[in-house]
Amino acid sequence: MNVILLAHTPTPERTVAAAARLCYSSASITDVRDGMSDEKVSSFVDMLAEIGHESPIEHATFTFGIEGVSRSLLAQITRHRIASYSVQSQRYVRENSFEYVTPPEIEAIPEAAAEYRQAMEEDQRHYESLTALLYAKHKAAFLAEGKDEKTAARLAEKKAIEDARFVLPNACTTKIMMTMNARSLYNFFRHRCCNRAQWEIRELAEKMLACCIEAAPDLFRRAGPPCVSGGCTEGKMTCGEMLAMREKYNRLREGK
Predict the structure, then answer these.
(1) b/e string for 104-134 if b means 16 or more Cβ within 10 A?
(2) CB contact at 8 A, 224 and 253
(3) Which CATH architecture has domain 2-87+173-226?
(4) Which of 108, 139, 140, 256 could form a disulfide with 251 if both were Cys (CB 3.0 to 4.6 A apart)?
């Protein structure tokens, strides 16, 4: 898994602080950023966290490049609807020798790992076979319609792989570009950094949070699962590791 913070709102914490100041002062829109020292910016951001006033943090956005994650993860992450997603298309990009994610629990058992690899290899063979069969049919049809050789081949390739992709597994990797505002990221981290989140999206959330902390440490000081800054919200389903989680996220904030 590779996660990169591609872009974010310039001076995100200062932007958030200016939005907060606008809510609580008579400053004009042209003056709202004036005279805001780093200490004042930090104070505004802390105040918002203390009183739970989260709307000003929506003005800061963060764009991530994500690769080496599974289509299974894609199905989970797009449930976070206040975000923008661009995903590598399996309709237009042929999956030659597709890469795939192996769950650690499968990798830990040699026999399971061997069977898993065999299943991936079989999926690849079926994908290539289906693509070839469909390609031949569609190319012949396009040629019969009067298309030239190059055009017929291009159209047949696209039409073949858009149906052959149905045999590809959830394990198949994909690439995602995702943009979220900071408030949506707070929500994402609350749910996906939790020990009870599925292992792959939890790893992604932790990597994304590390990127956010580096870019805007004050803004994301309290971000993470609920147990980091308060009590566990999972009730009887709690993992029971609240102290360990707090230590883990303290280390993350310290860059360790």
Answers:
(1) eeeeeeeeeeeebeeebeebbeebbebbeeb
(2) no
(3) 2-Layer Sandwich (3.30)
(4) 256
The CA dihedral of 170, 173, 178, 180, to the nearest 10 degrees, is 50
pLDDT digits (tens, 9 = 90+) for 56-95: 889 999 999 999 999 999 999 999 989 999 999 988 898 9
Task: Give me the amino acid identity at 137.
Answer: K
pTM metric for this prediction: 0.88
Token pair of 94 as six digits? 């042929």
| Residue in 21, 71, 190, 192 annotated catalytic | 192
Domain ranges of the chain: 2-87+173-226, 105-167
125 is catalytic: no
